[in-house]
Structure formats: structure tokens, C-alpha cells
Amino acid sequence: MPGREVSCGFAKVVRELGANMLLKERLAGLGALFFKYRSYTPVLFALVMFVFLASTSFHYRSGFDSAAYELVCLGVSLLGLAIRVIAVGYSRSGTSGRNKRGQVAESLNADGIYSIVRNPLYFGNFFVVLGITLLFPHYEIIAINILLFVFFYIPIIYKEEEFLLEKFKDAYVEYCRRTPAIIPNFRLWRRPELKFNLSRVLRRENGTFTGIIVGFVAIEVIAEYFVAHKVHLDWGWIGFLGVGLVFWAASRLFKRRLRALDTAP
């Protein structure tokens, strides 16, 4: 009977919509959870690499011991840091923060690096993780960490965009229409309206810089132990670690002063 077919078809659509809404809610829930603990994501990626290190079938490929190759890997991570520095340095007050309890956005960043990509901080994080991952030139590790990165950050981006859409409404919709979410479009570049805020960068990004240094040094030490069964660290890495620790200590010591200087709108 036609009426019954229409009724069954409508019920099917309702069930599908219900399933989609449930999936949407789950994605938002994951985004909120991952957002809260996003500072600990490097630990997750490091665990993947250490599992391979501990495997008896794991062997380094040629090139790992090359100082030039290690510098290339470090350069990739520092590129990610540079992207974050640009995003934070030209961001508006009350945005691009490290808050963990929930989403915060006093205004909408839409110029500077935010004019070419909507999520420059996470775009920078990708290169930070990629540089450390490339220390192990194995396709398995690289592929797994990239997949983990996507799995972890897609829900976070979804949750953030849900919040921004609710807060800024049509302004955010228009911004999304012209600005890509992940892959930058450099032709869309708009000069930032604000001046570069160095104190904001020093206050917010000292952890990223120190994390990169500690990550590289830790992997060097642990890898040497698993491969050569000894603990050894080149003087170059020791000096690099020293610079990182001094920078971190200074930023913590002058934390209040840096916060007071962070007065840009």
C-alpha cells in the first residue's frame, strides 16, 4: 500500500537521522575530551615509536645516524613551531590559548595566517609531530602517527567549529566559506591588523619549544640504548637541551611579568 510505504520510508529516514545525530554527539564528545587533554598528545605519538623500538624485529634504516638527517627532522618540527608562533603572535586577546576546561574565543581571528587556514595551530602541530616521527625513517611509524593525528584532531576541530558557529553565527559561516580548514591557500593572505606580540608568544609557546627539544633528546637517548645498549648523547644535543631548559626556566620565572606585558587587544 502506498501509504504504508511512505510511512515506512519516513520511519527509515527518522532512524537514519537519529543515528547521524548520535554519531554527531559522539564526535562532539570526543572533541571535548581530546581538547581537554590535547597537551598530552605527544606522549601518545612517542608511545607508538617506543613500541617499535622495543620490538625485536625493529631495525634502523640507513640515514638515521646521519647528523644532517637529524637536522632536517628538527627543521620540520621547528617549522611547525614557527607556524604556531606566527598564529599566536598575531592573535587577538582571548583567542588561540591553551585553555583546557572549554572553548574560549572573545573575537574571531580572520587575518594573518588565519586568513589562509582556519586551524593554523593544529597545522603547526602536525609538523612538530612529523619532525619527531621522521627520526624513525620507517613507513609504518610515520603512517600510524599520521592516522593517530587525524583521529585525535578531527574531533577537536569539529568541536571548536561547533562552538565558533554558535558564538559568531553568520560571520563564522562567511569566514568558513572563504578559508580552508586544514590545507592553506596562500592566495587568500591578508596582512594582520595587529602588531606581533612577542610577550604572548614567550608566555604561551615556551612549552612547545621545550617539548620539541626534550622530545628529540629523549628519543636520541632511548634509541641509542635500544640499538647500542648504552646511554650516549652528543655534546650538540646536550647544549640544545641546556638552551631549552634555560628558556623554560626563564619563562616560568618571568611568567607574571610576561602576562602583564601581554596587553594587546
Protein described:
Helix content is 69%, strand content 0%. With 265 residues, the chain is mainly alpha-helical. The chain has a domain at 31-196: Four Helix Bundle (Hemerythrin (Met), subunit A) (Up-down Bundle). Helix 2 (41-54) packs antiparallel against helix 5 (139-168).
Largest sheet: none
Secondary-structure class: mainly alpha
Number of helices: 9
**CATH architecture label name of the domain at 31-196:** Up-down Bundle
* Uncertain residue ranges: 2-18
Task: Please state the average pLDDT score.
Answer: 77
Instruction: State the helical fraction.
Output: 55-70%
Any idea what the radius of gyration is? 22 Å
CATH topology of the domain at 31-196: Four Helix Bundle (Hemerythrin (Met), subunit A)
Q: Give the CA-CA distance, first to last residue.
A: 66 Å
Number of strands: 0
Secondary-structure element string? HHHHHHHHH
CATH class of the domain at 31-196: Mainly Alpha
Strand content: under 5%
Shape type: globular
Q: What's a quick, concise take on this entry?
A:
With 265 residues, this protein is mainly alpha-helical.
